[in-house]
Structures are given as C-alpha cells and as structure tokens.
Amino acid sequence: xxxxxxxxxxxxxxxxxxxxxxxxxxxxxxxxxxxxxxxxxxxxxxxxxxxxxxxxxxxxxxxxxxxxxxxxxxxxxxxxxxxxxxxxxxxxxxxxxxxxxxxxxxxxxxxxxxxxxxxxxxxxxxxxxxxxxxxxxxxxxxxxxxxxxxxxxxxxxxxxxxxxxxxxxxxxxxxxxxxxxxxxxxxxxxxxxxxxxxxxxxxxxxxxxxxxxxxxxxxxxxxxxxxxxxxxxxxxxxxxxxxxxxxxxxxxxxxxxxxxxxxxxxxxxxxxxxxxxxxxxxxxxxxxxxxxxxxxxxxxxxxxxxxxxxxxxxxxxxxxxxxxxxxxxxxxxxxxxxxxxxxxxxxxxxxxxxxxxxxxxxxxxxxxxxxxxxxxxxxxxxxxxxxxxxxxxxxxxxxxxxxxxxxxxxxxxxxxxxxxxxxxxxxxxxxxxxxxxxxxxxxxxxxxxxxxxxxxxxxxxxxxxxxxxxxxxxxxxxxxxxxxxxxxxxxxxxxxxxxxxxxxxxxxxxxxxxxxxxxxxxxxxxxxxxxxxxxxxxxxxxxxxxxxxxxxxxxxxxxxxxxxxxxxxxxxxxxxxxxxxxxxxxxxxxxxxxxxxxxxxxxxxxxxxxxxxxxxxxxxxxxxxxxxxxxxxx
Length: 634
Prior knowledge:
- By secondary structure, the protein is an alpha/beta fold.
- The protein has helices at 3-54, 60-73, 103-109, 137-187, 200-235, 245-256, 275-282, 284-299, 328-344, 366-382, 403-416, 450-459, 463-478, 491-494, 497-508, 511-514, 527-540, 574-577, 584-598, 612-620, and strands at residues 76-83, 88-93, 116-122, 125-134, 265-271, 309-312, 317-323, 355-360, 389-391, 419-420, 423-427, 432-436, 439-443, 446-448, 485-488, 517-522, 546-552, 569-572, 603-606, 625-626.
- The relative contact order is 0.07.
- InterPro entries: Cyclic-di-GMP_PDE-like (IPR050706), EAL_dom (IPR001633), EAL_sf (IPR035919), GGDEF_dom (IPR000160), HAMP_dom (IPR003660), LapD_MoxY_N (IPR032244), LapD_MoxY_peri_C (IPR042461), Nucleotide_cyclase (IPR029787).
- The chain crosses the membrane at residues 7-27, 150-169.
C-alpha cells in the first residue's frame, strides 16, 4: 500500500474516531443529565402531591380528582396510589410517546429512571404510598435531534477537514512524486536533479540524490573530456589542430558514401606556398602560428557543425570540407577575405595561399575529387595575383532548375508520402536490434535518397513536415510488419512545439505501434535543442518510444549534457569505424566511448561498417551493435 493511501486512511480513521468518540460522549452525558433531572422531578412531584393529599379528607373520589388534575397538567407516564397493603387504590397511566425516533436508538440509550415514591399520611398514621413516574419519552426525541445536529456538524467539519487534508496531502505528494520519479530515473541511469522539497526527510533524500546526479555529471564531463583529449592527440595535427591525413580521408570517404545532408557541399584545398622560405623568414614559431591561424580562420566559415572538418594532408596543404554549401561565388568571396586576413597577420613577408574550390555530391569518387582539386590548385599557383583562388565547376545534374520548382516538388512529394528503406542494425549474435529507415521522396519520377533532397528541405524549413510524414509512413508499415524501426528527427523538428504536439497525438492514437519506434536525433545539437530533446523524451517515453543519437564523433563531449535524457543508444559516426581493425588509436577511442556509455546504460552502435573485419573488431572493443553496407542479415 502506498504512503499516500496510508496517510489518507490515517486521516479518515482519525476523523471517524473523533466523530464517534464525541458522539458517544455527548449522548452519554445528555442521557445521564436527563436521567438525573427526571429522577429529581419524580421525587419532587411525588412529595408535593403526597403532601397535598395528606391534608385532604381521604375520600377516594377527592383523591382521584386530585390525581387526575395533577396527571392532566404535567407529563406523566403513571401515577399510582396504593394502601398500606400494597393494593392499588387509584392509578392513572398514559401511552409512551415514540415519535420519529428509531427503535434501535431508543434501545441504545434506554433511560433508567426510578419512580418518585412518597408516603401519604392520615393524621398520625400512614394512609398509603404514592408512586409517580414522569413521561420521559420526549427526551428520546430531543436526544435524537441533538445527535442528528451533531452528526451534521461533524459531517460539515469532516468535509472541511478533508478539503484541508487534500491540500496538505497534495503538498506532500507532489515533492514525494518528484523524489520517486528521480529515484526511478536514477535506477534507469537517467541522472536527473530536482528542486529540494520543504519537507525535512524528503529534502535530505533529494539532496543525496542530487549530489549523486551532480557527481555523475561531473564524472561524465571529466571522462568525456579525457576521451576527447585522447582523440585530438591521436587524430589531430599538434601544430594546427587540423585532422591528420588518414583521419580526414576516412571522414571524406564516409561522407561521400552516406545519404544524409552532409554528403553535399564544397571541398577547399589551400596550399601555403614556399613554406620552407617562410620558416627561414619568420622562424618556426611564427610560421606555426600562421598555419594555426589559417586553420582557425577557415574553420569559422563553417557555422553548422560543432567541429569543422579540416585536414592537413602534408606540411603545406590543407583541405576543408564544408557541408551544405552550394553557392560557389559566395564561398569564393568568403575564402578570399579569409585568406587576406591570414596574410595580413604577417605584413612584413609575402604570403601566397593558392586555393582550389570543388563541389562534391553523394557517391562521388574520392580519388576523382582529389585529382580535380590538385589540378585546380596547380592552376591557382600559376596565377600571379594575390587572389589565387580557382573554382573548378563540375557538371552537376539538378532535378529542378529553380527554387520555386524545388519547393513545389518537395511539397507534392511530402503530400504523396515518403517510402522507407530498411537497413538492419544487428548485435554480436546477429540478432536484429532495429532497422534504420531513411526516407525516400518521389522526385523527378524516381525515389530519391536523402542526400538529394535534404539540403533543399533544410533550406525551405520543411523538416517538421517531412519528419511527421515519415512517422506516419512508419506507423502504416508497422501495422503489417511489427518490427522495431529507427526514424531520424531533425533538430528543427524537436524544437518545433507544433511538431512535438502533433507527433504525441499521433502516437497516442497508436499505443502498440509506438513501442516499436526508435527516434534518432543528430549529434550536432545546440543547447536549446538539448532542452527540447529532454521535453520530447519526457512526452514520448511513457508511450514506450526509445531515443538515440546518431553520427556521434567529435560531439561525444556533449554526452555529459545528456546524462538525464534517458538515451537508449548512441551511434558512432562511420569516420570512427572506418578501418577500425587497422588502427590501435581508433580502437582505444571507441573502447573508451563504449565503456563510458555503458556506465549510463546506453547501447553503442557503429555506423558505416564496411566489412567483416570491421564488424569483428567493433564487437571486440565492446560495441553492442553494427550497421552499414557490410552488415548482412538473413
């Protein structure tokens, strides 16, 4: 039995005890008082009547008239005159008054009042005995009305008391419920904190659990930062902070083979010309500072991602991947301004920074892109002006020629409804964890992958409409094939209140199907989006939905901010998994990330697994699941 129920039982029992006790005392006291008053009345009336009769002639007719007059003027049950032989000479009696008093009540109280007895004298001798009994039946009615009035008052007082008790119990229940919820969250490895209640005992418990949650948050922050430092030490150039060549190439291959929005954008290659000469003129320290400034300034061109994807291919060549960028001319102007700022940091020497810009698209060949960049960079080096930026336009076939056509086509495609592709996510035993379900839209007469339309969806702020259509399609498919599916939700959707409300309404209407849905959000979440994710998880978790984060790489440091969300799984970016079996450094990073996630009860899944060697190594370092082109499921 819950504490609240026990508290209610105690309150009700106390009220009933008070009512019954007060009623019993009131009835008993009134009964004793009435018995005493009636006994005194009997004695006084009997004595007065006997005295009057003693002074009269002892004529039975006269005595009978006196008794009749006395009987008719007062409330009496019986008046009896007996002689010295106990023979009844005169007797007057009346029926007992019952009124509307229940029989059980009369039996319960039942007055025990002795009759008033007095002696009648005839001169110096005794004439007889007078016995008088007053009519006390009316006292039952009076006592019954008093009991009803007392019960009504107690009922009113009870209602008022229960109303006050409700407020008090509610004041106790709310903080208690919060404490219970926090305890349940901690048992589920969601380390939440709550406001401390005013109740001393609950406040002490809450303080202890809040300290626990704060310690876990601190531990996660510390460990995730240590892992991030290790990752930077192993994957980044120590001078400039740019990615090492192999790491960048792995990320580039991963992006080109993916189907998300990052598979479209621009590649920028910058060469610091005559680096050895600059070392002689500026010194190694100043030259290193120049290279670091170049990487920092280029990174500021990317405002969409937490960590810009810049690699150092060799001593003087840097490559920058800028997803979602499609305006070549605007980018060229920005790059020129950035290079001018970098060159201005060393006004005493001539700094030449030839640059090549090439757009990329899903499924482009990495080798072809790099060859195009090298060719454009060679052309840039041949230019004599300081503005050594060459844009190598590549012939790209667009489904539609204008923004208006793209918008109309996307609106029509969303209205028709998307199709879902199914890619298995398996555990070490080969069993299905869930299916990844990226969306396909009917554009240009064919079902197009996300890499084609997501940049335009983002540009037109149509993510909530698309995500809701995908969820509806998933629910429709689940009605015929009940298997868990993973649905991508954009950051724009989870921060959209209307989308969250419509999504919850949709899932409430399909409670059994909602339990098969796994919602995945991108790792590049802002602080505002993380707060919205908490609200979304709180709203949908009671329906049985699970939540995960996809494409986790450099953003792993945000895990500490998500310790109270209650994530079910985390998907490592394919750049961390690529050639995992061949890199001890990557294995160390992935193993540390998996260990830290497991401490929070979060499953870890590797994305973009390409072959059996990567799968075997993935499970060997402690990852729970795998997905990608190398994953096959019968």
